Amino acid sequence: MVNYPKGVHQGQSAISNQMKVGKGTKRGLTFGKRGMGLEDEINAANDYYLADHLAVIHKKPTPVTIVKVDYPARSAAKITEAYFQKPSTTDYNGVYQGRYLDFDAKETKNKTVFPMKNIHEHQVQHLANVVSQGGIGFLLIKFTTLNQTYLYPAPELVAAWMQQEGRGSIQLKELVQQAYLVKASLNPSLDYLTAVDDYLADLESGRRSDRPQARGNHS
Amino acid sequence: MVNYPKGVHQGQSAISNQMKVGKGTKRGLTFGKRGMGLEDEINAANDYYLADHLAVIHKKPTPVTIVKVDYPARSAAKITEAYFQKPSTTDYNGVYQGRYLDFDAKETKNKTVFPMKNIHEHQVQHLANVVSQGGIGFLLIKFTTLNQTYLYPAPELVAAWMQQEGRGSIQLKELVQQAYLVKASLNPSLDYLTAVDDYLADLESGRRSDRPQARGNHS
């Protein structure tokens, strides 16, 4: 049966709902998340958010061009020739308290800069489109060596990309000033909605604009 | 280069923007759309909306479980064994004037009813989740024999599904009362955002609730 989710709705923040950890149904993610990849961490967080009615965010399937399919008798259709496509958008999107969220996940071992080559131009264009429609776009960037993950807002990404024409890198020092650290958490291990809350609060208070700002020089 | 979309933003409705047909860049869809399948029509509308900065809505890739991949020298990776997965969500989502839209496309040749078997339970559950997060969920249902397409809101779908436990069908007569006809249009041929506008206007005026309503008996 379909269950109409009850309880948590638009009025309530993700932060207040963290207090309820321990009562949900589909939990099962408690220890040993240190070594998880960023994508696994995001997927685990999304499962948690879905089970607790905090947000509905899914990873999009990998886009594939299917060329040949076999239909063996009495078995499932088998794809025998297919190729990976370049994704034309980001990997994650969904809805959180009435807001449209759209983001991609990026990992780097670099300790001092975020190299632009980690992002495709069409992803930057997509995030710019999202922001112009009133959506909340960002990257989740994990500096794996530092074990720190940041929410880097799309308007700043777009500005940096345009200024540097997609080349070079963003200094970690500068990125940290413009981004929101995803604070340590046990369950989910990457509770990135708290960083989204921080970003939304700044947008709503006018401390931040959802348009790209003029920025200083950087390498 | 990334172009930050200018011009049309939250304040302006899709309807007023239809007046601008002829100035966009990525158009190319003008004649002979009568025989198009619903999915092609939606994809063409989404291309149009994206090019004119009216909305950012994409079809999700078909979910596939990849089992074997070959990496031939000097060629692209080739998937040699993969299987279709059941989609766990709907096919389309995105952002329109700050609102999260989420929907699936359904076609039926039936002239008097919409059979429930066209929808999977997990899709109904997903749409219920979306609505509970403040998103706008619906089905676009095309009655191919009648050549009519309706926006059928998720709250009504969820109510019908729960009452009938996923069986039987919804009478076209009843569906028409609860749904929004996508009016005939030339470009795009299926301008479904006009039906979304009608639905949003009813939600905002309080003529409609985004919660499922009690409903009469039907077969």
Strand order of the largest sheet of chain A: 1-4-5-7-8-10
Largest interface: A-B, 55 and 56 residues
**Shape of chain A from CA axes?**
globular
Percent range for helical residues of chain A? 25-40%
Give the strand tally of chain A: 10
The ordered string of helix (H) and strand (E) elements of chain A is: HHEEEEEEHEEHEHEH
Please tell me the total number of domains of chain A.
1
Flag low-confidence runs of chain A: 6-33
Report the sheet-strand fraction of chain A: 25-35%
Structural class by secondary-structure content of chain A: alpha+beta
Oligomer state equals homodimer
Largest sheet composition of chain A: 6 strands, mixed
What would you note in describing this structure?
2 copies of one chain form a homodimer. Chain A has one domain: Trna Endonuclease, Chain: A, domain 1 (3-Layer(aba) Sandwich), CATH 3.40.1350.10. About 13% of the residues of chain A have low confidence. By secondary structure, chain A is an alpha+beta fold. In chain A, the strands form 3 sheets. The first copy, chain A, has a 6-stranded mixed β-sheet with strand order 1-4-5-7-8-10, sandwiched between helices. A two-stranded antiparallel ribbon of chain A has the order 2-3. In chain A, strands 6-9 form a two-stranded antiparallel sheet. Chain A starts with 13 loop residues before the first helix and ends in a 14-residue tail after the last helix. Helices cover 28% and strands 25% of the residues of chain A. Chains A and B meet through β3, β4, β5, α3 and α4 of A and β3, β4, β5, α3 and α4 of B. Chains A, B: It is found in: Cytoplasm. Chains A, B: It is an enzyme of class 3 (hydrolase). Chains A, B: This is Holliday junction resolvase RecU.
